[in-house]
């Protein structure tokens, strides 16, 4: 069960990260929209790194190195999720205000 969830999650977050990265860097996009899309990319990358960290706990032999690496990956994922969501919501609100002011 975990293997199917893990592979699906890794593939979905990998595809979404690449998609958001390419979308944010295309020409002619509004700078606030680009930053908002990069926030989505950071959220996707955070989920990907968290899945890789949690996957370390599924192995039979848990040694100290594996636990330390897993905790480091989970920490990096948490920071990425926090900063990505903060940037997404900040730039989304600023972009909406700018769109309303243009009308």
UniProtKB/TrEMBL annotation:
The chain crosses the membrane at residues 6-22, 43-59, 65-83. It holds the Pfam family YtpI. The keyword Transmembrane applies. Keywords: Membrane, Transmembrane, Transmembrane helix. This is Membrane protein.
